Each structure stands twice: as structure tokens, then as C-alpha cells.
Amino acid sequence: MLEIGTTVLTVEDIDRAGDFWRAALGYVSRREPSDDWVILDPPEGPHGRASIALSKTGYPQHYPPRLHLDLYASDQQAELERLRSLGARDVDWHGYPPAADYVVMEDTEGNRFCVVEAPEWFSGEE
């Protein structure tokens, strides 16, 4: 059986993107970043929660992207404010359904993600 181990995001600036995602998720670098690659793991290690890798590719971001992350938040408004302070931007998107429980954002590199009001079963603690 397969399971997702790492999601790879393409970036233009490894340091800037690494700083953003480490602060946003509380992840740590698995090892010292190279000029074009870094893997970020949950602080308790890559077992049980997926890692994120950042890859400097040299080609531009495509819009709209075909893949995005859904990040669950127990306090959505607080997380939106915190992510904006780290450099995330709101995406000007007109596809929200009525009573949407998510907000579309992008990181410092233009990679999109949604901040979703956590469902009842989600506690945020593993």
C-alpha cells in the first residue's frame, strides 16, 4: 500500500520559501538545505505526518496550479492573520461557494493553499 510521504513545491527562492514553511507549519529542515532542494519535516520526525520538500526548478509557476495544500486550522482567523504576517497573500479568487469554510492563499513563491476551518474530528494533535 502506498502513502504520501512528501509533497514537493517548486520555488524560486529556497531560503525565503523555507523560512515561510518552517514558520507556518513548525517544521524543521531534515538536513542543511542545498542551493536547490530542502526537505522539511514535522518536528517529531517524518513518521505519521507528511513532509514538504522545496525544489528550485527555474521555471515559472503555472496559474491556476493543478495541486494545492489544504491546511486545517482550529482557529482559522488567527491562522490567516499569522500566515499573512509571514508573507502569505490572499488569492483574488471568485469561485467561493456560499458559506465556504476555506480561504485560498499563496505562499511567498506563489504556491497556493487553502486554510480550512477544521472539521469536528480534527484536533490538531497527533
TrEMBL record:
This is Putative enzyme related to lactoylglutathione lyase. Signal peptide: none annotated. SUPFAM superfamilies: Glyoxalase/Bleomycin resistance protein/Dihydroxybiphenyl dioxygenase. Pfam families: Glyoxalase_6. Residues 3-118 form the VOC domain. InterPro entries: Glyas_Bleomycin-R_OHBP_Dase, Glyoxalase_6, VOC_core. GO terms for molecular function: lyase activity. Keywords: Lyase. It comes from the Bacteria. It comes from Microbacterium immunditiarum.
